[in-house]
């Protein structure tokens, strides 16, 4: 599968580190979807990426801090892109949370995101 046929969901893609990851993926020909609670961060991301890659960036305003928000963002994303082939994450998790995100309970993750 070529890069142009792939759709990458970049979690944390509107953040400082994530925006760099998104830029590189777009420059390599991937389609990239980014979900953020803050439209101004998505606008900042749009202004950061290369102008010739803007058509491959899909931005969605949504809150994935709750199960309902995740479901809503998922439906919006799938309507926009059809399917996601890859996921990368640059979500910021601090050391005090007790380890990597995949080892955290849903309760702990929700506590941090509220």
Structural summary, described in words:
This protein has about 110 residues and is an alpha/beta fold. About 40% of the residues lie in helices and about 20% in strands. The chain has 4 helices and 4 strands. The chain has helices at about 15-25, 40-50, 65-80, 105-114; strands at about 5-10, 30-35, 55-60, 85-90. It has a 4-stranded parallel sheet with strand order 3-2-1-4, with helices on both faces. Helix 2 links the parallel strand 2 and strand 3 (about 55-60). The longest helix is centred in the middle third of the chain and has 15 residues, at about 65-80. The chain is globular and about 40 Å long.
Strand order of the largest sheet: 3-2-1-4
Shape: globular
Estimate the helix proportion, in percent. Answer: 25-40%
Q: What are the segments in which pLDDT stays under 50 over at least 5 consecutive residues? A: none
Beta strands, count = 4
Number of helices: 4
String of helices and strands = EHEHEHEH
CA radius of gyration is 14 Å
Given helix and strand content, the structural type is alpha/beta
User: What percent strand?
Assistant: 15-25%
The whole-number mean of residue pLDDT values reads 86
Let me know the largest β-sheet: 4 strands, parallel
**End-to-end C-alpha gap:** 38 Å
């Amino acid at each position: 599968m070529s890069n142009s046929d792939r759709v990458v969901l970049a979690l944390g893609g509107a953040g400082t580190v994530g925006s760099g990851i998104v830029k590189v993926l777009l420059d390599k020909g991937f389609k990239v979807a980014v979900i953020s609670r803050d439209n101004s961060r998505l606008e900042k991301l749009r202004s950061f990426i290369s102008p010739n890659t803007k058509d491959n960036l899909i931005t969605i305003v949504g809150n994935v801090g709750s199960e309902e928000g995740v479901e809503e963002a998922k439906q919006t994303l799938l309507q926009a892109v059809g399917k996601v082939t890859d996921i990368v994450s640059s979500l910021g998790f601090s050391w005090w949370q007790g380890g990597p995100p995949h080892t955290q309970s849903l309760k702990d993750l929700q506590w941090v995101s509220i």
